[in-house]
Every structure is written in structure tokens, then in C-alpha cells.
Specification:
Radius of gyration of chain A: 17 Å
Largest sheet of chain A: 7 strands, antiparallel
Largest interface: A-B, 97 and 98 residues
Order of helices and strands of chain A: EEEEEEHEHHEEEEHEE
Structural class of chain A: mainly beta
Helix content of chain A: 10-25%
Oligomer: homodimer
């Protein structure tokens, strides 16, 4: 029997997006967001309230990066989601994160997190809090790439956020082949 | 050392969204989409090209549902992503999926998939292929709920799509507590 859970923003799995930006002084900041996803061939959308320092930074600089939260840095990824740079200006230092400037956009890349999207701001709608960016490059540490130069999930070890239970889960083992396993039903 | 992978729509993890709709005759259809995510407090956005029968259906009916792809129905979820209802009108039957009409919106709920978002169409932008819906209800089979009535990922067993390697992975074990594990860094 099905139960109705109400109008909730639930998708499984949801990513753990660590959004990094520069403020007006060039100080890097980062926050943790689970409300987001691909919305076009090289586009990503996220729901980000305008009170976030990250939103002010992105509107001023026109750019940001998004790193994937991973098991190795789970506590740091959680930390940047529970503390605001409005209150703790050196939150990235406290998280143990170091940054270098992206070679593609005016935004910092977090060195410790092995995969990042480098994005230009396309639009921000205050009414809906929807921010859309164009992904101009994806960079990844070679330690998370396989012999074909593709990202290997068993090396990246990304985490996913379960909002109902306030939990993080790891992405697990491979269970199927896309565009193949369904062909048997043709 | 970091490598540049180019402008690619990569987020880890990405969901496996099974979007169900009625056509003009009331025949249910479904497709598989990985490009999507939460974009507001009760909103979801997806990139869906207008050639999809699903898009025609949603624009005509103003509604759709999104079920989470799961391990148990992996082949059927893959199948609805590789065959178009433009070519195979009875694709849902072939997938082994049965539907009942949502009690909230004019769209079918796939009975076999244990969790679904019931959505009203908010907007569709042809230029960007971005479709936005409002989630008016989430329904879930009680077999995937824990004793608190919350979705239990070990029962739902959702899958995630790895676009670089054309693979599906299961969501794995819990590895942390959100809003807690980062507090140690305060």
C-alpha cells in the first residue's frame, strides 16, 4: 500500500554539491547544497536563497565551481554546510580546504576535492531562488580517473545526501549497464 | 595533478528519473532521464528535448510523475530509456510496468516502482529544453518506509547513473550524519 508523504523535495540519490566562490576581496568561500542537478547539455541549476554569501559572491563575480562531496572529506563538506561565511569568514581554513583559482572562470577550485565543475553564471531568479550556470570545464585529479581517462566512482567515492534521515551514503557498487540491460526487453 | 575533461554535464551521483505521463488518448508512457534535480522547496527541473513524446504529453496534460529507478527494476528502467513510445506505443507493457492514475495530478503512477513524485507542470522552455514542475505530493509504498514512516534507502535501493561509463550503481551504505559530523570542526 502506498502512503502520501506530502509535497517534499525528495529525489534519490541527491548530490552533495560543494559550491565555491570568491567574495569582493578575493577571499574564497564554499557551501554545501543538495538541491541541484543537470538542466541542459552543459548546464546545472540549483536552489540557493539570496541570503547566502555564496549567492552574493556569484552575482558579483559571475562564476563559481562545484566540487562533489566525497567520503574522505565528509566532515569538512558537512561543516561548510552548517556554518555561514557571514559569521565565520575563515570557514574554508577551518574545514581544512585550500584553493587555487580556476583556469577557466573567476572562482576557486578546492584542491582537496578531486572533481569540480567550473561554471559561469547564466541566470539567478530571486523569486524561485533558482541559479543556473553553464559548465565550461570539468576538472578531476588523475587519481580518480581510470586507464581510459574517465572518472572511476570507486576512486572518486562520492557521497549522496538523504534529507529524510539527515544521512550521507556512499555511492555503491556497479549493478548494471546503461543502454544494454534494457535491450533484452526489446 | 588535475586533468581537464571539457564542458560535460557531470554530477555524481545523478538520479535515474522515470517520468510517466498520459498521452492524448490516456495511454500511459514513461521515459528515463538522468538530467534533473531539485530546484526549489517543492520544485524539480529536468532537461527534456521537445522531440520526446513525454514532453508532448506533459505540455498537453500539465502533469507528470517521477519514480526513482531501483535495482529490482533496473532492466525495465533502462528499457524505457532506450525505446521511444513514438516507435513502440506499448513500451510500458513490454517493460512489465502497470500504472494507476495519481490522486493528485493527471498523470500515471507506476505501480512497480515504490516511490514517486506527483508533479504539476510549471514551465517549459524550448530553447534550453528545461522543464520545471511543482511537486504536489510524494507517494511511497510502505514496504520502503522505516518505523518512523520515512524512506529507508536500504529498502528503496535506488540506482544512480554514471554517464561517463554508461553504468548504473546502487546507493550504498550510510557513511555519515548530516548537520552533525561537521560540527566537530566548529
Amino acid at each position: 500500500m502506498r502512503k502520501n508523504l506530502g509535497a517534499k523535495p525528495l529525489v534519490y540519490p541527491q548530490p552533495v554539491l560543494i559550491i565555491a566562490s570568491y567574495d569582493e576581496n578575493g577571499t574564497p568561500d564554499a557551501m554545501n547544497a543538495a538541491w541541484g542537478g543537470i538542466c541542459g547539455p552543459a548546464h546545472i541549476s540549483m536552489a540557493l536563497g539570496e541570503r547566502h554569501k555564496t549567492v552574493k559572491n556569484i552575482l558579483a563575480r559571475g562564476a563559481f565551481t562545484i566540487s562533489m562531496g566525497d567520503v574522505e572529506h565528509l566532515a569538512a563538506c558537512d561543516y561548510v554546510g552548517i556554518v555561514s561565511a557571514n559569521d565565520v569568514p575563515d570557514k574554508l581554513d577551518r574545514a581544512g580546504f585550500h584553493t587555487t583559482k580556476s583556469g577557466f572562470v573567476d572562482a576557486p577550485v578546492i584542491e582537496e576535492l578531486p572533481m569540480a565543475l567550473e561554471c559561469k553564471l547564466i541566470s539567478y531568479d530571486e523569486a524561485s531562488s533558482c541559479l543556473v550556470g553553464e559548465i565550461v570545464n570539468v576538472c578531476a585529479d588523475e587519481k580518480v580517473l581510470n586507464s581510459e581517462g574517465k572518472i572511476d566512482l570507486s576512486r572518486l567515492r562520492p557521497i549522496t545526501f538523504d534529507p529524510m534521515n539527515a544521512a550521507y551514503h556512499i555511492v555503491g557498487e556497479k549493478v548494471g549497464n546503461a543502454f544494454q540491460d534494457g535491450a533484452a526487453l526489446k
